[in-house]
Request: fold
Amino acid sequence: MRAMTAAQEILDRTISGERLSTGEAVTLLSEGDLLEIGAAANEVRERKNDPGVATYIVDRNINYTNVCVYRCKFCAFYRPDSKHPEAYVLSFDEIGRKIQETIDLGGTGVLLQGGVHAELPFSFYEDMFRFIRTNFPTIHLHALSAPEVYFLKKMTKWSMHDVIARLFDAGLQSIPGGGAEILEDSVRRRVWSLTKVPTAKWVDVHETAHALGMRTTATMMFGIAETYGERVEHFRVIRDLQDRTGGFTAWIPWTFVPENTALDGQVETAGGFEYLKTLAVSRLFLDNFRHVQGSWVTQGPKIGQTSLAFGADDLGSIMIEENVVYAAGARNRMTQPEMRRLISDAGYEPRQRRTLYDGCPEACCAAPIPVPKERPATLPVVPGTLEPEVASA
Reply:
């Protein structure tokens, strides 16, 4: 009889209920068998969720501006300032049109984010959120990111609590996990400016939101030349925060898409094998998460489908609109019927959910989602809502 490998012994203990250490997670990533890790992750997934169901959401990513003060090497979406010919700030009317279209297509929420635009005052965000909540009270407003919130704190010189509390009062309902990338500051120094949001400040944004009763998501973008140890350190930061607050609704890892970025050709990105292995190990390590989302957007529909057998219980949004990873070369798109077919072909019952993973009436699934028209190679300039000296051209 063959002796068990170190990775197999770790998996046996994990399945029995022992918590993975960071060293053990690194061992699984570096030495473990993909299928064995995937089987263990799937077992954990089935303990925490209905084994026969996989969920998805119909929502829209709205990027209210592409102007950003930061120069992240991995980003192809931003424009450096409001004078750039492709810079824009969406008008409230345009945001409203996009939200109404989302509702008409059976959508239940919007993910509203932008670049970090230094010329937009705090009142812009309050006014934007109040406009949305007043005119579209049924839509869930999942908005901003830690870098945006952290910048508002620095700009206003208010406490993190006061910044988030005011945004909450204006209509913000939950915060996405954007800006996490890899929560290990040596990686953050290598790949972008640490001033964007250090690990401790990213944690502070989410921990403060949780203390105020808001839910947020935890994300990771990997495959940007980080080590396994740095990747697992990200897992640890997330698990520790979830232990303290329980405020994360889901864990959402995805892979870096390099096209059109400053890192194109400079780093070895993660393919399907590496993605599935990392996803599965993260499901095992993050034992305090119920929901794990598979990334069909960056890995394609088939790997997204396969992720449901490697720890994921959800495939996220059909993406009525998405601009950031699209700008970096990800061209994967999905209609609602295609999403439901993708899930059912994998052997699961597809169920539409809402942003906070509560149920959605089956009537939500009735509206057909048309295939989006081809997006332009460059983004249009859209008139802003502010005074001319503040708004982009």
User: Anything to note?
Assistant: The longest helix spans residues 228-245. The chain has a mean pLDDT of 85.
